[in-house]
Amino acid sequence: MTFKYMLGAFAPAIVLAGAMATPASAFTLSLVGGAEVEGGAEISAFDPDSDNLFITTGDTIEIFNLFDPTDPSFVSSIDLTDPGNIGGFASGGVNSVAFSDGILAAAIEAETAQDNGIVAFFDANGDFQISFEVGALPDMVTFTPDSSTVLVANEGEPNDDYTVDPEGSVSIIDIASSSVNTVGFAGVPIDDDVRIFGPGATPEQDLEPEFIAVADDGATAYVSLQENNALAILDLETETFTEVTSLGFKDHSIDGNGFDASNEDDGINIETHPVLGMYQPDAIATYTIDGETYIVTANEGDARDYDGFSEEVRVEDLTLDPTAYPNAEELQAEENLGRLKTTTTLGDIDGDGDTDQIYSYGARSFSIWDAEGNLVYDSGDDFEQIIAADFPEVFNINDGDPEEFDERSDDKGPEPEGVTIGVVDGQVIAFIGLERSGGVMVYDITDPAAPSFITYEPSANGDISPEGLVYISETDSPNGAPLLVVTNEESGTFSVYQPVPEPGTILGLLGAAALFGIKRKKHTV
User: pTM of the predicted model, to two decimals?
Assistant: First the structure.
């Protein structure tokens, strides 16, 4: 497995002039440390001044110190079940954290998830400062590149009976003025192909913000609407959404876009199928090449499945149109497409009650889009092909268990969920976490139209279900070398990885020095 050494500093927004930089030196990704987190480990944020890592567990924010990445040390815990710790708010759980310029921001939902939540602010020691009311179910929080503004994606999910469905929104918090503006989707232009399908829901209720990435100039934010298979574009100067654009569908009948559709086919069978995949990204990130902004998406997929409404159905239970699918009986066999989960909300094109087109959840890939939401690149069936060839024991496994080999093939496969970006010797590198198969896929995305695969690093050290990824540049790193922190939801652990250059080079010696404890910073925790 080969990598490229991360020599340059990393900022939240990646800006490069010229798409074709000099190739970087090869390296591998080495597990250097980690720890178990009491209560779980979901999303994390890093403070480069104190070397503290803040990790959400649901009910708490756990603080670990990474001064020695090989042996992270527990510092303290912020108990969010105590309203006194968050300004008297009754917490239903913390969903996301972000850190910038001495400030920790946490997105915290209400005890009743359909009520408005808060964004709570803490100092670098974890001491509560102030909170702001935001929309329902704040699910992800981030800072703008200049640290002046905090954005939170208010998902606004319905209750399980689907009798209460709050509106989705994004709250914009101006730190200097201590003001908040919650922006919804009323009157916003929406593409016809955007999925608006909740029972009785208005577009404002149905659109559910999942994740936010901000362009490096701070003028525009991009918001993934996972269930809706769409991207919303937010003008931060006018604080209004300008459009909601559909991400379209991936044609799995094309060579290079195949996937394994069954957990009952007795093995790995990556094939093309007459299926369209909904991209439905979870995490997204932005970077800039030659003045153009690009959005990178981890195409996880997600269905609405509530007691009061569920769109899920397996292909074997559909009535397939005989003209569109003349070989329906063969396709609906369990070892073919029969087990694949699809939706009841799409596919009856002519309105006659049968299915003219099968759709699947997620694209089992990562994609790159331009600033208008047009597809520039998709990794096709790379993820499943790579794992099948080199790590077949973890192919589409469930919950990190090789004994559940192939069990997720009928769902969303390896399930790419998290993504973060770093600069490597002038090259832009994307790290994509796979929730089900585990581990991290790594690509050079310097040329947005022609990314190249670098390596796949499987989960190790008992880690199960990568949820969040944080890249720490060598400038911010406690040991002077770039680090990747992966938080793992199912195992309740986090791991710290370090790019280690191949032996025999000057970079190799520098990497080894960092790995074995020669620290850049001089402070005491």
Answer: 0.92
